[in-house]
Amino acid sequence: MPKIYLKYIYCLFLYGFLCLSVEAQEKYVLKIEAVAEEESVLRKYKYPAEHTDSLSTERAIRQLINTLHSDGYLLASTLSRSSVSNELRVKISIGEKFTWLRLTSGNVENSLLRRSGYKQAQFEEKPFRFNQVARMEKSILSFAERNGYPFASLKLDSLRIEVNQIGASLNLDLGPLIVFDSLDIKSDFAIKARFLGNYLGIVQGNPYDQKKIDYVSQRLRNLPYLRVSEASTLTFQNSEATVHLKVEKRPVNQIDGIIGFLPNSNRSDGLLVTGQVDVDLLNPFGSGKQIGLHWQRLSEETQNLNLQYAHPNVLGSPLNFDFAFDFLKQDTLFTKRIFDLEISYNLGGNSFLNVFSTSEGTDLIGTPKVTNNQLPSVIDFDLTSYGLGFDWNNFDDPFIISRGAGLSIKASTGNKKISRNVSLPAEVYQGVDLKTLQYTFELGFQNYFRWKNNFVLVSKLSGGLKANDQLFQNDAFRLGGLKSIRGFNENFFFATKYGLATLEGRLLFDESSYLLLFTDLAHLEGEFKESPTSEWALGLGTGLSFATSSGIFNFIYALGSSQSTGSFNFNQSKIHFGYTTRF
User: Fold this and answer.
1) What DSSP string describes 180-199?
2) pTM of this structure
């Protein structure tokens, strides 16, 4: 008989044996009864009747008794039990249901009771519930812990029982007032205790706040330039609380260079070499500041310069200040400059509320072609807008993310002013509203799911919308390239409305080295006044990132397909090399 049939028969035999074993496995049957006058109460409660072992039956009995206690049947207990073969019979006594006679506020202030959700009517002639009292206790003690009293305790005083009614009053002992002492920091690099204290919200002399202590580890993980070498500890002495931190420097200051080789569409032969340089300095003065310089050469005639400066905890406050300047020269068409000022406020943990102002201006370089006395696809304009934003994340690491999710939302509105260009005919401006309101919305979500320690699935969703009756190409979002839709030239697409989804799988060799496969799918719309566009774009590719002793090497190979460029073409594939040096 062929070996394949022998294997088939063996598998069938093994499967049948396992099925018989499962059917033959002993089951434990649980039957719970109550005294005759309490059977109607017992029928309201459900419990599993069949169990695989005796331990599971005991857990079911205990869970039922605990549920009865929580619902006010404080005297519920087991009376007897008997077992025959694999059947366990349990008889319980439920007893009378206890209600509140009255729970008075005692020495607890009314303002504190209101914050805890306490209402006198809930504790007069109402069923006695443990969970209700526990929630109120947790709320009161949590408020005390956040306002300088970490040793507060709450108990029921003057307890009395009348038949099946319970009366009591609250007794709150706040304990001593505790204030924060200065941070105790042990580190191998320069970092100012004042800055770190303001960043964590742990300021000397301020009342103790347990919530800030709970967030210490999470907030420290959000600082990319340090690593917590030991878990933080907390000590109390002389009514003061001291937080002890031990951190070490993490080499994240970087000089990042990328070289791209693209087919040169302006020449019949040869390649177009593009480039990008990123310089990021984090914590340069030991006070958490950040300085960034980013330059790109996107094509033969296109370059982009971006400068950034971030100043955390301005004047010791919880406010952070960010400034950015961006300058773009787009071929021989136009230049665009953007000044961005942002003030963010920490809402707790890694949640931030942002208020920002953006000043945007565009100037034409040459004279664009005009047809039918209509405005061209690019114009001169100035836009000053104001907006709000929200950022949140719970990433496990700010630099090399393998777990967690992040959300970013921005909305702004501003006055757009179209400037008359003397090189264009005056007729093109006839009937054009030179001053209008423009709205901008942006949304981003990303999730990193780590599976079996060496695989990370990255999913990202982002979108943007610009709303105005008069939109032009130099208004648009710019997409395409290594940081958006891979497989296309940098900033290849112009869109006033877009949605972008990314799915990426990473096979980890270690925490900072991995092999990746990815796909980027985008729907792009350009609601331009004269030439509206709409298309789908798809990018596919693979890549490699691996760490060396002095930096990280990146290699990306990608193909792109869209309605404007056609199907996948290996002659138009994009290859990107990158090397990031950290110090």
Assistant:
1) E---EEEESS---HHHHHHH
2) 0.74
